[in-house]
Amino acid sequence: MAISKGDTLPEATLVELTGEGPKQVSLASRLKGRNVVIFALPGAFTGTCTTAHVPSFIRTADQFKASGVDEIICLSVNDPFVMGAWDQQTGAGKAGIAMLADPAAEFTKAVGMDFSAPPVGLIDRSKRYAMYVQDGTVSVIQAEANPGQCDLSGGESMLDAIKAP
Question: What residues form the catalytic site here (predicted)?
Fold first, then answer.
């Protein structure tokens, strides 16, 4: 069953590429006492992810910070080296977006947001969604019906959802 508003996110160990190499990240520790936007997508360097999803959060990063968001995390089922290269290519890190890898799709499966599309080579990937998490609890979640769409889960839509009364 997919994660929904009011749910507490499960503990997960994700991986972030740092200047010293891959670093394991406890998601629970990263979220504790903080307001965080997590947006997840099918894959680094893929079409909609590169041309629409990441750019939407780069455009809105300052507005999220002004709205009380402590961090924006991009999550993908890729290895940390791919996420690091994608960060360099997109400029996401320079905009303040953390690029975290879920290499074995463990978190993605635990929150029920996994899918596979063998004809295009996507196995155990993440559906496209974004969520606003306050101290580990989901306050807003917006998922796309189709992984090629980036409407509800884009930066501007999430910003509107967070600001809504």
Answer: 49 (cysteine sulfenic acid (-soh) intermediate)
The strand pair at 21-26 and 13-18 is best described as: antiparallel
Q: 132 has which bridge partners?
A: 37, 140
pLDDT along the chain (165 residues), means of 10: 94 97 98 98 95 98 97 98 98 98 97 94 94 98 94 97 83
Please tell me whether residue 160 adopts helix, strand or coil conformation. Answer: helix
Given the residues 25, 49, 83, 98, select the one marked as catalytic.
49
CA distance 153 to 53: 8
User: Token match 């690091």: residue?
Assistant: 84
How do beta strands 129-134 and 137-143 pair? antiparallel
Beta-carbon count within 10 A of 67 CB: 14
Give the burial class of 146: count Cβ atoms within 10 A of its Cβ; 0-12 exposed, 13-18 middle, 19 or more buried: exposed
Question: Which of 53, 31, 61, 72 minimizes the C-alpha distance to 143?
Answer: 53
Q: What is the pLDDT of residue 121?
A: 87
- Find out whether 37 and 70 touch, Cβ atoms under 8 Å: no
**Annotation marks residue 150 as catalytic:** no
